[in-house]
Amino acid sequence: MPLNDEHNSDSESSRFSESTAASSDSEYSRQSFNSDSSSKPSSPASSPPKMITFDELMAAARNLTNLTLAHEIAVNANFCIKHEDLPQNSFAGTVKQIVHKAFWDHLESELNEDPPEYEHAIKLFEEIKEILLSFLTPGANRIQNQICEVLDTDLIRQQAEHNAVDIHGLANYIINTMGKLCAPIRDNDIKQLKATDNIVELLRQIFRVLDLMKMDMANYTIQNLRPYLQRNLVDYERTKFQEILEETPSALDLTTEWIKESIEDELSSASDESSSSPGADSSSKRTISPTLVLNNGYLKLLQWNYHKTIPETLITDEARLQELREKLKQLRIIACVCLITNNMVGAAIVDVPGFAEQLKRISLPLLEGMNKKTFDLKEALNAIGVQICSKVNRCLTERGLPTLDEEMQSNLMGQITHIVEENNPVCSLIDKRIQFFLRSLLALPSFQKSMPTMPGGLSVIQTEMELVGSQYASIVNFNKQVYGPFYANILRKLLFPETPMGKAETGTATATS
């Protein structure tokens, strides 16, 4: 597609996107910002400035941790706790290895004494008993009584005084009980325990498997908790954040700054349109659409410098937004590469089946790991250019057409490597198209499942863009549901500073959707 064709509909598209968002903005009328609703529990209450103590700060931190964990469990179906060992060559890994070896060596020396010294072993049995009891569900009285009876540390101490401790018998009982309580995935670990003869190594391995069983139990709990959290997550997150705000009144400072910057962007955009259209009415803060302000703020998150702290209300989705940003960078480059190639040799290969897809398959592997500091984008683009020239020449040869001469190949590779340059016209155009698609997506009602029309030049990445757009819209719409009342208070303060402040209506949360 020629570059000049790409430019034709940009201004109309931009106006269409903004008008679509504005048309759904009736819920966000000024009346909703002036309202002083009754004290609803899910509405954020304003907090007077106060000094906060260390305990209050720690309570806020705990609330934030709980909020983040609950959010991750609910929205990430793959979230689970994993067992990770420290790297052996790391300082922490070396210290752990030395300390553990010293402990187990000491235990072995005690058990090899004549008579054996059982005090440390008894403490291990007591710890094992508590772990086994923690696995039991309410009502499992029979096995609970049995565990307490067999692993009665007072009784074991009495036996130790008379050198009558059946330590292997106790270990076998523990292994059999673990076999009854563990998940099927641990059956092989239980078999390996039964095949271990050395008592010290056996106790060591018992603790290793118990750690795995604790992880399994935690993941089982997460799996059962997920549906409940998903049903109640909006109210839970809003309530938790309100608690944080009461304990830390400055907890919305970054969010306020984020919204303020978005308002300034909208004012600047309105001013530019007004100056370019002499007959247009002069814009003011009162005529700015709150929905457009928020949507503009959400769009900026996909170009956010993540060395800078993200707004407080988006901390729970920071990793997901950063991942989407990196994916969009990759897709933008692929679209640029395809557009440049089509503009240079499109007439000769326009009817080659799936040629754009082939270009994408060439580019994708070479752009993996773009988010890493060690990634050299210019070098990757140079490699892409070489492979694309080779691919184009093969296609031309197969069709009996002359291949690209050295000058054309050099020109094609040069244009591809220049994508990295600031204000590159092709890159700016593709980025503008991507922004338009995402802006149009946010302008759609949250209940509408269809995607907006894909702008020209993005067809080669349409499938990936729709997937990214779906994930992005899901994050944005949920965030609006949770934090809509908080945003309403901030927007009312910034857009209508002369109106009395009151509690934001609960319904404002849906108004931002």
UniProtKB/TrEMBL annotation:
InterPro entries in the cross-refs: Tcp11
Organism superkingdom: Eukaryota
Stretches with biased composition (Basic and acidic residues): 1-15
GO biological process per UniProt: signal transduction
Compositional bias annotation for Low complexity: 16-49, 268-282
Cross-referenced Pfam families: Tcp11
Location of region: Disordered: 1-50, 267-286
Family to which the UniProt record says this protein belongs: Belongs to the TCP11 family.
UniProt name for this protein: T-complex 11 like 2
Taxonomic lineage from the root: Eukaryota, Metazoa, Chordata, Craniata, Vertebrata
